[in-house]
Amino acid sequence: MAATAAVQRTMNKQTDLTELNPVYTTTEASEGVPADSGDLQDYVVDFLQKEVGSDLKSLKTVGDLLAKLREENNVLEKQVLTESSSMPPKVSAALSAAENAQCSLEDLLQREQLISNMLHQHLQGAEPWMDSLGQTLNQVNTIERHMKYLQCLQHIEELSAAVQQCLMTSSVWEAIRAIDSMAVLDAGLNQSGCSHLQDFLQKTLHFWHKIIKDRLASDFEKVLTQLHWPIISPPTQSLTPTGNSHEITSQLELLVIQLLALQTSDDLISQRTLASGQGGPSTQPGSSNTPSTPLCLPIQIMLLPLSRRFRYHFYGNRQTNSLSKPEWYLTQVLMWMGNSSTFMEEKIQPILDRAGVTISARVELCRGLLSLVQEKVASDASKLLYDDALFCHLVEEVLQFEKELRSNQSYPAVLPGLLHLLLEDTILQKWLTIEKKMAVEKMDAMLSAEGAWSSQYKDISDMDELKAPDCAETFMTLLQVITERYRALPCPSAQLKFLELQRELVDDFRIRLTQVMKEESRCPLGARYCAILNAVNYISTILGDWGDNVFFLQLQQAAVSLGEEAVLGGLGVMEVGRLASLEGSLFEGLLALLDRLKGDMMGRLMDGIMREITEKAKPYRQDRPHKAKRKEPVATSHVACILGSFFSITRVWIGSRFSAVVDKLSSSTTGIVLPLSFT
Description:
The chain is mainly alpha-helical. Helix content is 74%, strand content 0%. It has helices at residues 2-20, 22-30, 37-51, 62-85, 89-168, 172-188, 195-226, 245-261, 263-276, 297-314, 326-354, 361-383, 388-407, 425-448, 470-486, 492-520, 527-547, 550-562, 565-568, 573-580, 588-622, 634-650, 658-668, 670-673. Helix 16 (492-520) packs across helix 18 (550-562) and helix 21 packs across helix 23 (658-668). The longest helix is centred in the first third of the chain and has 80 residues, at 89-168.
């Protein structure tokens, strides 16, 4: 009991020690001592058992043990206090640096605020000076602009005086250079706001340019007159006088080069006059239909006498100005081109080559003359929209003119001729309407003609394999003529409109053939019925050939690329893809309809032949040749009738389809005429 009481007292002391020294408990816990109160008591009991044991005599050591524990507790407290008061070196250095940075930042913020206040005060004080300086600079800029304005004006006056002085001393080259300087200055002032200065410069430039141009043009015309220009009729002898030919050639070259040097300012004035729309009637050829690229100035002057002749004869109340005779002025212009080509190539072209001008004198002359014709054709076409006959005649003459222009005059294909005038909406629509109207009238005439269903080559088998009747050949010739008319048009879209017209005409002709076929279907073995079948086969063959033609293949590609609904119709994506890959044809729909009609007619024809053969074979089937007492069997006459009926059909239906007819007949008549081989 005494030992137990001692242990209990020891535990109470240990509990008091724990309460007084929490560090001890934490330290012991870190060494494996349980932190729970129950566990702690167990741990203390175990500790006392180990140190004191059950010997009561050893209780006298409890005081020493308590002193030892207190000493260890003091050591641990000192260690804990030392560790808590000291920090790692890096953390301490970082904290110190942060404190220094904070101090520096506060100092900088104070300095920034001070400088900002000083700057604000300085700006407030300098604002009046800035306003005064701005006004002064504006005045300086205004004075500078005025100075440049006056300098530019002085320069214009100096150039004008220089041109005047050069003209007085006949220094044409210096005058031309001064004119070029004015043109360059005018181009530089184009974007400026000095409208009055620019207007003054333009008037000055135009004034001196006109004087120089008129002087050079006058001298140039005199030289051309000595060279017998313009050449109205074909030259029959040398155009240059033999006495002073070298001098005239030298003058011609000098004047051409000087006029070429004046080209820049002339183009500038022409463009400005065209843009302003203030120019009055001009004698320059093609003034109302100016080409996209201005004509060479020497060529413009050379065209003046031809332009005057053209306007004199083909405008106004002259008898030669007739709407019903467009071939008069078209032929006249072609004659001028042909008669002048030698002069241009021998006299003008070498000068242009030596001057380094990369243009063709002959082509330039043709361009100028074409501008006259374009103006005239455009005027006449608008007046003939309500006269079908005259309009059709004008179109024919324009097409013929274009053909001769490209072939005989070798006019470049890249330059426009007259065909683009026919592509204007109202004119093109009128052309299409007339083409359709005339084609329908011709179809009516060819189908009602006396020899419509007979072939003109019926007696020549080598030339008439398809046995096409005259109406079919005439119709396809009509389509071919339409093709030749629109083939040269420079616009694929317009060509596709004519192609759609042709397809409409083919379908219309097919419907007419169907109607005639139904009327003749009561007698399928008649010549007219077979002629209709030949016509269908002929048209189908020609359209198949057109599907492989390069021209129609190009139109097919154009229709796909342009997405022409009128031509493509309701074709699906697959069909359009086939057309794009050239696997199909624009005539496939028509060919399918023609093949259907051809198959129907072939069936009717075969039925008629079978009925005819069956009817003629009845006596033969009842005949008994071995019982006949006559010298010639009766079957011979029957066979002759059968074969005569058959070959009477082949005489009108012969060619590529004959083998198919024979095959069908042989398979259909086997049961009827098989005994014929034993007679």
